[in-house]
Design goal:
Layout (H helix, E strand, L loop, with lengths): L23 E2 L10 E9 L5 E8 L9 E2 L4 E6 L4 E3 L1 E2 L4 E4 L9 E8 L2 E8 L6 E9 L8 E10 L6 E7 L3 E3 L7 E4 L5 E6 L3 E3 L2 E10 L1 H15 L14 E2 L6 E16 L1
Parallel strand pairs: 2-20
Antiparallel strand pairs: 1-19, 2-3, 3-4, 3-8, 5-6, 5-9, 7-8, 9-10, 11-12, 12-16, 13-15, 13-18, 14-17, 18-20
Length: 270
């Protein structure tokens, strides 16, 4: 589930997870004289084809000067001894077809590019099903526009490291606060039924699709970092960001690699 790269091209990516890999804070000179490989890689449980995007940009936050990295060798292995090689098409986009992921399997990304080797590790979690979706009309109140608000109802799993990213799709959705696309939920290790109202969207009549992505702490922290950067666009590497970008890529690259355990449900807003 690769999302279109837009204003924040190396950040606005499909959900990536990392259960067993160690997330590291990098401290490097992110300027046009120090271009670096950027990995936008994720494996999904919803499709049987997977995509890894490799780019390079002179500025870590440069919106329009991405360079696709061609000619790399990209492969993913798992802890059961299977290996899948990715084929480049188009330039800088590496794909594998008939590659279905499975829960509780650890996947290792291996990239060889321009004489350098990069690796990352992620374990696919079990997707948490959405029990139901509901919505309610709210009148305008202080700080809250009037409109239909959706609640996502699901049962949390007995896992201390369980975190969630709730994503919204469909023309019915209206982002009322111009907020980041990363609406994150910290489960704090709790087990039981959760009902999470989406505070940043109202919904017009029509169908809305909700995706519940299960995260581990490394991915949760990563997306929290992205939220800070997206919601504070003036804080960049040249004016000082709250913290250095995090990455789980070993070998001197930027970005993130992981797996996505997703459940999906839709609701008709009348």
């Amino acid at each position: 589930m690769m999302q279109k790269l837009i204003k924040y091209p190396i950040f606005i990516i499909a959900l990536t997870l990392c259960l067993t890999a160690c997330e590291r804070v990098i401290d490097i000179d992110l300027n046009e004289d120090n271009p670096m490989l950027v990995v936008d890689g994720n494996l999904t449980n919803l499709e049987d084809f997977q995509t890894i995007l490799l780019t390079r940009t002179g500025s870590y936050f440069g919106g329009d000067n991405l360079e696709n990295i061609t000619g790399a060798e990209v492969a993913v292995t798992d802890n059961e001894g299977n290996r899948v090689a990715f084929t480049e098409s188009p330039a800088g986009v590496y794909k594998a077809i008939n590659f279905k992921t499975a829960p509780e399997i650890t996947y290792t990304l291996n990239i060889n590019s321009e004489g350098k080797t990069y690796t990352a590790v992620s374990k696919m979690l079990n997707a948490v099903p959405i029990d139901s979706l509901s919505y309610i009309w709210k009148e305008r109140s202080f700080g809250t526009p009037e409109g239909n608000y959706i609640s996502v109802n699901f049962s949390t799993i007995a896992r201390d490291e369980a975190y969630y990213w709730i994503a919204v799709e469909g023309d019915s959705a209206v982002n009322i606060r111009n907020s980041s696309p990363y609406f994150l939920v910290n489960n704090f290790g709790a087990v039981g039924t959760r009902s999470i109202e989406l505070p940043f969207y109202t919904f017009k009549p029509g169908y809305a699709t909700i995706k519940l992505h299960t995260l581990d702490k490394e991915a949760f922290d990563y997306y929290n970092n992205l939220n800070e950067i997206i919601t504070n666009p003036g804080q960049n590497p040249f004016t000082g960001i709250p913290q250095n970008p995090t990455t789980n890529i070993k070998g001197g690259a930027l970005g993130f690699f992981g797996t996505v355990a997703t459940s999906v449900d839709s609701i008709l807003i009348k």
